[in-house]
């Protein structure tokens, strides 16, 4: 048994707090134990200690060393005097370890019995280690002129008196004296008595020849005979190596004498005890972490337990969340997303919640038992969108027109379509026919395929309308002359003008009455297009033509590059008696499934062929339909998910390449993936947060990037520990160092990232709050799993797989002996004074990158580049604006997105388009928000409040009707309120209620539309409302072109009847600019909103006086609240990002305690923030919901790399350049691997069709790249330039 067989058991004093100090000590020179020995060596004779440092080596010893040096140089060693002797003496005492042995041998040669022992492993490495030691000690002897050829320090038992001790101490070297004094002070204070020291000083001295190794035979056995993976490595602590610096040269040729007293073994134990420290809550007496010790003792048990916990929590999540979710969807439907304290959202919920409450209350009394006719209601629509490929436009050639008609013929040429289309109940049944026809599609092709065409009439109309004065005159007279409405509003009307307007209106009506797409294509298509360009200027006929032509189409430019059309699908598929809401929903769902299957089996193939770009030469066709759009989106999501899976596959293989272990790669991917369900369980079950936003799915990409970074940091620290000899005493010491080193760095980055995500809580938008909290929990769980599960996996890897990793062994192959830690130590010893060569990437960062940054000229170039770029970036970043249009859902080149984009951007709001309904309601108070927390209860928006003194009296009715007439006819509202047939599109139930109160029914719609009831007493007595309203709600409205819509359906929001009383009354008007389907720029919406609010303020004083209560002005399509959201996006992005930077600075300052490091690291984060925003602007992005979230979390993403380098720089020793070298050498490869993983993993997201993922991939790539560049070449260059020194102790600020 020789020296190196015991080296792994030395704790090197357990000093984990100052690894850099300990790194100056080599394996061959353990000064801590030497100090302990020197402290106990109270005496040798003064003559034996004086002038020892000047004594020359004895000839025989010098000859013996020459023998070994000759052997190392390849010379013949036969001339050397092989005088090696082996001595062993075993002492067994009841008060000490009965297996304690003293092994003494010379020249570092193993005793024959141990050398030949089959358990004596690693002998060749040991012999190389011994030779290297002799070379080093010989070199030191030559340099100092003193005799220091011993392998270990000579152990001395304290002398017989304090006088001898002081005499001996006087002859020691100054450093030894200092160490001895300090050790004696520590020993005295710990033991509390010097008497015991004196007693031990009386024991007999023991002189060791060259090597003295104290070890426990039982410990040796326990080390070599490890039976399972939970082996007790703490037995290593029972071995110790002694320092060669205090070896007594007089003992070279002396035999070893032993004290026979029974206190001897206790003295040896005392020597070991002096090397320990007091244990604490987290560390043991050797300074190793207790948690690490526990993991090393039971790695497989802990590993299995952690895996089981992850799987168990995932199972519970499935039971408690997924199985109880509606339709199996655990995500919260993203509706009603707004600031609940904003005035827009308050008014929105005041009306919405009141509407829902009264509709539910009156449903049983009004709607139950009513029959809904077969296919009488609109159940779905199929949109066709066309794009011209020629400059003549879509209507410039018969070929293009016929190509568009082919799209509609797919349905209308099929007899089965009648069973699913919306039936036309307006027209009377044909003779001898009991079946109704399908409603005609809404398309301009109706005029190109009329049942008949009169070219003369068409030419006469065109000529009349070519004169702009005629158009203005006709628009002024049409309501009165053609419709017979509001003639009192047309002053100075002449009979001649009336006749002319009537004749022109009659001709136009005759022409348009034949537009049914039942005939052949008109031969003179140019005349049809020209007529349409003039009719679009006529108010009452505009709605017949404006829907299908783009916004560039006019009489001056009769060319339309885009067109659109709608095919109507009806429901229910059979006559249905209305019942409960749940029953109707089930019936609608059943009809929807039948409709979808019918379309997929009969039409979908033809629709795809029509939309194929190669089908038609002159046009491109696009379609979408609600029934099948879900399948389309699902296919897109599946395709994008496959791309996202590639990202995870790359992460897996990159972890495998860097860890060189399939086992660690699988565990790494496992902990990354299972961070999601574990965090989800905590988020939903423990925190009881029920709002789980769709944005939360981004967390999987967040944790993939950050989790991989943490794995690389941990694994690289483990690899680097093999180059620190003071850490290779045992696995506990090594892993404690790795745990401390990585735990602090990753804790800083994880805390900063979590804080950055939690900064999203400052936004009032619940979906963003939910994402921020969930992402923070995911990052925290990932950190916990890395420090527990992955740490345990590394211990198992060390014990079982590491030596066989290069062969691909990934199954339990048994505990390895010698362990990789022992092999690493042997390699260091064999390498001698030469530095061990590390992997090429680490060496590149240590010697190339670090040196490159240290060159002043290079830093100057960096500085110039950064200044120029940041100037441009700041200029571009300041141009960031809120979104001005609908946020694209898909890639702009996807057919579905193209059709949506064309619809949103290429068409004005047509007469047949639904405009945004803006409501003016009286009788409501603001909603009560008491107890509302949408994170905990997404369905709770508050409680509606009603005005107690609301009175729908005669005066209130009159004022409401006057308000309706003003909205319809006032010219100043022409650009604000949509016009239909020359009148404003206003929903005014009062006029139909008035006619019903007089007539008792609504069969005479002309009486209603012309307002003939105004000449009579039409007001309803409030006391009669309970008798009138129920029957009134069941009447067919006069303003439905299909003739099937009821009053209760048309005015479901306007009439606040709850079955017993009228709780509120409302009037609605359609916006001419805003649509309920799309989003526009905040400035556009705000302009319209301000005008509608101005109207409310003008009439509220009048109506509120007669009706009671103040007006509530809102829409129910969330356009006004989204307008406010757009403003919130800007504020939240700025506030969250700057708050994230501030938090990062505070965390850095607290962790490093160095102001300039925290400050410059924060500046680096700010540079990343500005740079990413600048590139977003350059890419044409606007500040929408996705961009706002991304900007808010930039600080959290960009902090990792600079924090790792800052922490490595702060803990390193030496001057600035030495610290930079150490920082790059230790963490350069980790940061690089993290950057490569995140960037490459983000690349597949660039090709996703869902913009949600595509933008996140771009953002992730930009943030990571800029973070890496600024951290490595910006932050480190500033530190290298300023060279601000760091204090080793005390306040470092």
Automatic annotation (TrEMBL):
<feature type="transmembrane region" description="Helical">
    <location>
        <begin position="662"/>
        <end position="689"/>
    </location>
</feature>
<feature type="domain" description="SSD">
    <location>
        <begin position="1157"/>
        <end position="1281"/>
    </location>
</feature>
<feature type="transmembrane region" description="Helical">
    <location>
        <begin position="622"/>
        <end position="655"/>
    </location>
</feature>
<dbReference type="GO" id="GO:0016020">
    <property type="term" value="C:membrane"/>
</dbReference>
<feature type="compositionally biased region" description="Basic residues">
    <location>
        <begin position="132"/>
        <end position="143"/>
    </location>
</feature>
<feature type="transmembrane region" description="Helical">
    <location>
        <begin position="300"/>
        <end position="322"/>
    </location>
</feature>
<feature type="compositionally biased region" description="Acidic residues">
    <location>
        <begin position="240"/>
        <end position="261"/>
    </location>
</feature>
<feature type="domain" description="SSD">
    <location>
        <begin position="633"/>
        <end position="796"/>
    </location>
</feature>
<dbReference type="Pfam" id="PF12349">
    <property type="entry name" value="Sterol-sensing"/>
</dbReference>
<feature type="transmembrane region" description="Helical">
    <location>
        <begin position="860"/>
        <end position="878"/>
    </location>
</feature>
<keyword id="KW-0812">Transmembrane</keyword>
<feature type="compositionally biased region" description="Low complexity">
    <location>
        <begin position="187"/>
        <end position="196"/>
    </location>
</feature>
<dbReference type="InterPro" id="IPR053958">
    <property type="entry name" value="HMGCR/SNAP/NPC1-like_SSD"/>
</dbReference>
<feature type="transmembrane region" description="Helical">
    <location>
        <begin position="1128"/>
        <end position="1150"/>
    </location>
</feature>
<feature type="transmembrane region" description="Helical">
    <location>
        <begin position="744"/>
        <end position="765"/>
    </location>
</feature>
<feature type="transmembrane region" description="Helical">
    <location>
        <begin position="1253"/>
        <end position="1282"/>
    </location>
</feature>
<feature type="transmembrane region" description="Helical">
    <location>
        <begin position="1224"/>
        <end position="1247"/>
    </location>
</feature>
<keyword id="KW-1133">Transmembrane helix</keyword>
<feature type="compositionally biased region" description="Polar residues">
    <location>
        <begin position="26"/>
        <end position="42"/>
    </location>
</feature>
<feature type="compositionally biased region" description="Basic and acidic residues">
    <location>
        <begin position="54"/>
        <end position="65"/>
    </location>
</feature>
<feature type="transmembrane region" description="Helical">
    <location>
        <begin position="1157"/>
        <end position="1183"/>
    </location>
</feature>
<dbReference type="InterPro" id="IPR052081">
    <property type="entry name" value="Dispatched_Hh_regulator"/>
</dbReference>
<feature type="region of interest" description="Disordered">
    <location>
        <begin position="1"/>
        <end position="203"/>
    </location>
</feature>
<feature type="compositionally biased region" description="Basic and acidic residues">
    <location>
        <begin position="103"/>
        <end position="118"/>
    </location>
</feature>
<feature type="transmembrane region" description="Helical">
    <location>
        <begin position="695"/>
        <end position="715"/>
    </location>
</feature>
<comment type="similarity">
    <text>Belongs to the dispatched family.</text>
</comment>
<protein>
    <recommendedName>
        <fullName>SSD domain-containing protein</fullName>
    </recommendedName>
</protein>
<feature type="region of interest" description="Disordered">
    <location>
        <begin position="223"/>
        <end position="261"/>
    </location>
</feature>
<keyword id="KW-0472">Membrane</keyword>
<feature type="transmembrane region" description="Helical">
    <location>
        <begin position="1189"/>
        <end position="1212"/>
    </location>
</feature>
<keyword id="KW-0325">Glycoprotein</keyword>
<feature type="transmembrane region" description="Helical">
    <location>
        <begin position="771"/>
        <end position="797"/>
    </location>
</feature>
<dbReference type="InterPro" id="IPR000731">
    <property type="entry name" value="SSD"/>
</dbReference>
